[in-house]
Amino acid sequence: MAAELPDGPDFELHRPWIDRIVFKCPKCASRMHREPFVLDTWHNSGSAPYSSFTDQEYRRLIPTEFLTEGIDQTRGWAYTLLVLNVILGGKPLSPYRAFLFQGHVLDAEGKKMSKSIGNVVDGLQALREYSVDLLRFYLAWKSSPIDPLSLDAKEMSGRPYQVLNTLYHIHVYLSQNGALDGYVPRRHTVAWARRRRRLSLVDRWLLSVLAGVEKGVLAGYRESRYNEACRAVEQFVIETLSQNYVRMTRGELWDDSAETRERRLGIFATLGHVLERVDLLLHPVSPYLTEYLHQEVFAGKASWKIPLLVRGFGRVKRLRREKKLEETVAAAILVENGCNSARTKARLKRRWPLRAMYVLAPRRTAAALNSTKALVSTLCNVKVVRVTTRPEAFPVSFLLIPNPTKIGATFKEKTRDILQAVRPMRGAEAWRNYLAGSGVKLRIASGPIEVPPSAFDLRFEQNENFEAVEKEGVFVAVEKTRDERLVAEGLERDVARRLQALRKARGFSPTALLNKASVAGLEAEELALLMPLKKELSFLVRAKEIQLSTRKDDREGDDEWYEDELDGRPLYLKVS
């Protein structure tokens, strides 16, 4: 019991008020005061490296390589470890070489998790509902370790799931297609493909991009920037590998002739090499999936060969970068993006082949595009690609027009005088001024003035035959007119896409060869356009026979047909 309450009965239960209370000793009845010299409990933990080891153990084990704790322990354990080791050791030596501070895990709305609020995520329940590899990847991918992390299951099931799912299915793609040509990972290597001269420009580009990704990912792991490492893997798997490389080489894999087998093996060698290295890169974050993929696709027939971890992370031979080649393919992809934007403006589907495309680019970019016209033609689905550095050779003319709103925001009361003095620029003059980024010098009543390039808008003069866009200083114009042959090929791609979707829905593997694919409900004109293209359609959907008709065969049951649509009307499909 308290003998004295100097601050009254409603005192604060904190220092210094708690220190002024006087107690009576129950044994000797003496006055008891609180011990004034009390250290924070973290000082006990902070002295652990010095106090718990023998001198020999201390010299051998301290400083330790790595420690990690929550961000709230910056002034707790981390600080007292440092201070006490310096004091007790008598040297300016930290007891750790690296200390990673981690932010707190919050709920999906960024609020602190609390049992009373009910927003706590149960770890065991999360592992029952989600893949451990997905959860690990999401936590590493989401944010920098030191920043707070808002745990959102919906977000985790989005892009992070897409990365791991895409990686899995590209392994399946390699395994299924490679088996048809006798691809053996340990025999058909990148070195083999180089000796046989079976590596194409896009193969070398992929290997070069991977070299840069590997360097960034390894640096991210080494410097505890795990989120940057995971996002580099994300971009490579989704964009570079799946959306670009697989798409660029798919047409070559569809050609199953004996004459092109070695070229297909070159693609498989490149894809296999890249996937093995991506498995290694991602292994520290998602070990179970990457180990499974490695063993199933690359380890051979015997079950569970040497594990990835035993092989040694980061010990593989570094790839060589070809930066000029990367710039070349990047230019081709940039033109493809421009082409797709022009198609959207002109309402031309990407599947529809076009007659011609013009590209106006700076000299260095134009030289790169001229060296890879075949790739640009494939990416953009156009028959002819014309590249020029002269605006006069571009089929669409330019207009550089002053923007009254932008001029008014900059020059206020001088706006009227400037608009009366400035003139629109056309053709080559407009193009050169736009690229140069130089202002326009004028003389108005108040004196000389310069209008900045940001006050002008670049436009294209209307052209009934071409649609033009600009992407990062590169101008792309696509020809809008399509003759009967191009219309037929476009219709063929529309039908092929629907048949491909149906065969996937019916459970056929991508490598399976169908006995027959049937299309009914075509108009007479469409049937006439498609009949000469039956061989090409058979190649696109991997079917031995293609049957085309204007109406369904009444002798066949409706259950066998799948109803789709084409231009707003029914189209009937069947695969077997």
CATH topology of the largest domain: Isoleucyl-tRNA Synthetase, Domain 1
CATH superfamily of the largest domain: Isoleucyl-tRNA Synthetase, Domain 1
Tally of individual helices: 23
Domain module count: 6
Shape: extended
Q: What share of the residues does DSSP label as strand, in percent?
A: 15-25%
Question: Which residues form runs of ≥5 with pLDDT under 50?
Answer: none
State mean pLDDT (0 to 100 scale): 88
Helix proportion range:
40-55%
Biggest pleated sheet = 4 strands, mixed
Q: How would you portray this structure in words?
A:
The longest helix has 29 residues, at 226-254. The chain folds into 6 domains: 2-32, no CATH class; 42-102, no CATH class; 155-321, Isoleucyl-tRNA Synthetase, Domain 1, CATH 1.10.730.10; 324-394, no CATH class; 398-462, no CATH class; 484-575, hypothetical protein PF0899 fold (2-Layer Sandwich), CATH 3.30.2320. It has 23 helices and 20 strands. By secondary structure, it is α+β, with helices and mostly antiparallel strands. The mean pLDDT is 88.
Tag the structure with descriptive keywords:
Isoleucyl-tRNA Synthetase, Domain 1; 23 helices; 576 residues; alpha+beta
